[in-house]
Specification:
Blueprint: E1 5-8, E2 12-18, E3 20-21, E4 24-25, E5 30-36, E6 42-46, E7 53-56, E8 59-65, E9 70-79, E10 84-93
Parallel strand pairs: 1-10
Antiparallel strand pairs: 2-8, 3-4, 5-6, 5-9, 7-8, 9-10
Amino acid sequence: MTTINHYFEGQVIKLSATFTASGIPTDPTTITLKIKKPDKTTATYTDALGQITKDGDGLYSKKATLDQPGLWFYRWIGTGTVEAVGEKKFDVKASEID
């Protein structure tokens, strides 16, 4: 059973990925992150454009501002030296205070 994280609208969170080859943190040749919001719009970010932060060997992250309540999805894609795909989801609750 997969646990879904819950956040509040307006929060800024850090989406992270670890890429490995034979259990050793390794940098892919290219990295792409896709974030799908509850309204079904998808934003795509790449390391080539400097939109993703490298936190260490094989470790990458991107801050996301949660501007819509509902179910969000994100997908990390590594190609080249490390071929890997990982996808997760989380829920954003609307604020009860305006």
